[in-house]
Design goal:
InterPro entries: SusD-like_2, TPR-like_helical_dom_sf. This protein is mainly alpha-helical. About 50% of the residues lie in helices and about 5% in strands.
Length: about 500
């Protein structure tokens, strides 16, 4: 219980820090009001990445659910600016320093994973970002920007080093327990799997750059998949990097009986529901309830729940008033009450086994590596089915007749559709970034969403224009050919 409470409090501290993430590079300097010596385990807890629980606002953007209250508005894709992660990175740098002080090298190894995670997060959201000079912020508070390519190469190198060094550490320190770990109770072997699953995620993020010799995506992928002893990977849902929920402060998801308005407000979106209906996917019955009108029309509840026509989603591109009208007439499905309207719901996943397997399936399907694409596709779909409570027999039947692995362009689209389904209300922004990269699924957009096309990035924080003007403007011109900083500028990783 002590570990749980400590992790929960530290996460609240971390989340509070993110609201100040638009501050400048002074965040990387020593804080004169902070203790000069902090246990690296506490800094590890504070720097550990987190994600959003089911039916949080982040999952409106991939059109899994929408809100239908009279005070709300349809999803707005008019993205503005977002912040940097240098506040969290300050904790990571301090963790490295404290690890040296107390001779705890494992925290320096984990720092490489954290640095890769937070720089990739900034890079894919914004484009070019300061890296090399930013990490020397005490000497340079106006750092030059590094290109996305440079940042990604450094991050992939960090991940490779973290895997190798952690493997050596585990060999020499069997049974070592990592203090401050709220995900795996100190099990470093689980962290090594996460690092490699995350590295595969990053490589798929760069699918448009697979032939870039400097990045060496295919070679890096092959090194992981052809050397399982050196690069262990997740083998089941038990390896997921996730948090489970319960009725305790700091552990409740956002959709729970203490938040009564959520039950009235949240409805499923037809972008998601229609894909599952087309596939006759049993996960639909696990995550959604039939529409009230379907339930009223037939007293046999089992028949209703097994009829895919009993389910319907709201339209993300329609006005709130239109969706309220359809909902009031009983025409829209709610989240499955048995699964979600409680204090447990589904785990909040950050990096999952199902994602890893579908990423490997995509890499194999594209011909990057010589592994069995169908095997990994089946593993990913079955793991997703298990996550959502679908039994193995139904999953096998689905793969045999409804959504089997297929080759060609249609097969690649199917992998992406299965990934979209697997990401339902989990894994944070990954589903949105999947659609941004692949175009799957096609989002429903209209003037109600305040855009006429999907945004591809966020603008830099205003502090860059105020405090790092010359380097900020040079980065815009280098990337976009003009001093334009908005959601429609195409960043390097998305260019063919």
């Amino acid at each position: 219980m002590i570990k749980k409470i400590t992790f929960s409090i530290a996460i609240l501290v971390l989340l509070a820090g993110t609201f100040n993430s638009c501050l400048d590079y002074d965040e990387l300097r020593e804080n004169p009001n902070a203790p000069t010596m902090v246990p690296p385990s506490l800094l590890f807890t504070q720097a550990t990445p987190t994600t959003s629980s089911a039916f949080s606002g982040v999952y409106e953007y991939p059109q899994y659910h929408i809100r239908s209250n009279s005070d709300g508005s349809p999803i707005s894709y008019r993205f503005g600016s977002t912040g940097f992660n240098y506040g969290t990175l300050r904790n990571v740098l301090k963790m490295e320093e404290e690890a040296d002080r107390v001779d705890a090298p494992v925290y320096k190894i984990m720092a490489k994973f954290f640095k890769a995670y937070y720089f990739v997060d900034m890079c894919r959201s914004l484009g070019d970002v300061p890296l090399r000079e930013a990490l020397m912020a005490a000497e340079n508070t106006r750092p030059k920007y590094d290109t996305q390519k440079t940042v990604y190469i450094q991050c992939l190198d960090w991940l490779d080093e973290a895997n190798n060094e952690l493997g050596d550490f585990l060999l020499n320190n069997p049974g070592y327990v990592l203090e401050g770990d709220g995900y795996f109770n100190g099990d470093l072997s689980k962290w090594q799997k996460v690092i490699n699953a995350y590295a595969i995620r990053v490589m798929l993020t760069l699918s448009k750059k697979a032939n870039d010799a400097d990045l060496n995506i295919k070679g890096r992928m092959a090194a992981i998949l052809n050397n399982p002893d050196s690069y262990p990977l997740m083998t089941s849902l038990g390896d997921n990097m996730q948090l489970t929920h319960q009725d305790e402060d700091g552990y409740r998801g956002s959709y729970n009986p203490n938040n009564a308005t959520a039950k009235v407000d949240i409805i499923l979106a037809n972008t998601f529901v229609d894909i599952l209906k087309d596939y006759e996917d049993p996960r639909l019955k696990a995550v959604a309830d039939p529409t009230p009108s379907a339930m009223e029309a037939n007293s046999n509840e089992d028949e209703v729940r097994n009829d895919f026509n009993s389910y319907n989603g709201g339209d993300p591109s329609a006005s709130t008033a239109d969706n309220i009208l359809v909902r009031s007439s009983g025409g829209i499905s709610n989240p499955n009450e048995d699964r979600y309207w409680n204090f447990v719901g589904q785990p909040t996943v950050l990096i999952g086994y199902f994602e890893q397997e579908l990423n490997i399936a995509e890499a194999a399907h594209r011909g990057w590596v010589s592994v069995d694409a169908q095997e990994h596709y089946n593993n990913g779909v079955k793991a997703s089915m298990e996550f959502f409570g679908v039994n193995e027999g139904e999953a096998d039947a689905y793969l045999a007749s409804k959504a089997p692995y297929i080759t060609g362009d249609a097969g690649l689209t199917r992998i992406h559709e299965q990934m979209y389904i697997a990401f339902f209300e989990n894994s944070g922004w990954e589903s949105f970034f999947l659609t941004r990269r692949t175009g799957v699924p096609v989002y429903k957009l209209s003037g109600e969403n305040l855009v006429d096309k999907l945004p591809v990035r966020w603008a830099y924080p205003q502090s860059e224009n105020d405090n790092n003007y010359d380097n900020y403007r040079a980065a815009l011109i280098s990337q976009f050919g003009a001093e334009i900083d908005d959601r429609d500028q195409v960043i390097w990783e998305l260019k063919d």
